[in-house]
């Protein structure tokens, strides 16, 4: 290893020696168990100095994979990992048709430390991975592409997702084909879970993606999933995506069908908290719009009664959902918060906001200020016709906000209503 290190250092500008040294390094580090930041830095130098030399780039990508595998990445500097990933993507752009180089890059992205903690261009990565997803490679590579897509999709802003329209549409079509196949085979494996999570995240705050999901028979496929599988991990992901559709007024009426309402109403009574929670969210959004229910208003009233009864059984302070509930924005809740005629709907929105604000105040208290949610909570607290329980939950959220504000003693970045 000392000779390899010396060669990589001394011959960094001579590609023929660099290629040979990298090949030797690859064979020596195939099952390495210790971190080698100095060696990885020399690999990065070789990639940077010879960007158009395919043998150097390919061999270096394989070495980087050996030196950063799952356990090792945790002990390497973030800045070094960031440089290596950026160089890998540069190599992909220079050699877009070299399959093995693409595989090495994809394998590197399966590393949770790199995917979550390391800075790199998520937009380019998502474009690459979603295009790879449609290559119909072997099942192992497909599972990796699906799992990476599920994480990257959540890291993209809605604006970035909109820019990736073509890739997102192709990915949704491919992901639905995987779900359909797994459902037909009654195979509830890890690929199915990753696929459902990817679809959920790709449609989050993306009306275009939700519409494309519906146009590709997504609703019929998801009804089949609910009929086939009873595992809560699958049900919660299906309902999470349906929540994304329910939040979009122009599309939510598509969910008001006999089969869909039957399944959602049944899952509202699930013993699994996260399943019941997501089912309640769909019902809250759907029942908020009376126009969709003109032909079946009685069923709507029954759902509202069930929704109210279910929320009464939830205990906010002690609730522990196994599924991590996260929101990019509270804006979808604002029409529900202003719905004083349907306290059941208002209660669900308040309960959801209280749950996430109490679990992650640094993120969501800031969101309340930036999006104008504090004023809506104050309005509920002061409204003469508001439901007493709704006023109580609104007060609890505002109390948590005050506590967070006092603890950190940082004035919000924008104006807030007078809360004291």
What does this molecule look like?
The chain contains 25 helices and no strands. The chain is elongated. The N and C termini lie far apart (65 Å). It has 420 residues and is mainly alpha-helical.
Write the layout of secondary structure elements.
Blueprint lengths: L1 H9 L4 H14 L8 H13 L4 H14 L2 H4 L4 H17 L4 H11 L2 H6 L4 H12 L5 H17 L2 H6 L1 H20 L5 H13 L4 H9 L2 H11 L3 H15 L2 H4 L5 H10 L5 H16 L8 H16 L21 H4 L5 H17 L1 H11 L1 H10 L5 H21 L12
Percent of residues in beta strands: under 5%
Distance from N terminus to C terminus (CA atoms, Å) equals 65 Å
Which oligomeric state applies? single chain
User: Quick check: average pLDDT?
Assistant: 90
Silhouette: elongated
Radius of gyration: 25 Å
Low-confidence stretches: 411-420
Q: What does the largest sheet look like? A: none
DSSP, total strands: 0
Helix content: over 70%
Q: What structural class is derived from the secondary structure elements?
A: mainly alpha
H and E order = HHHHHHHHHHHHHHHHHHHHHHHHH
Number of helices: 25
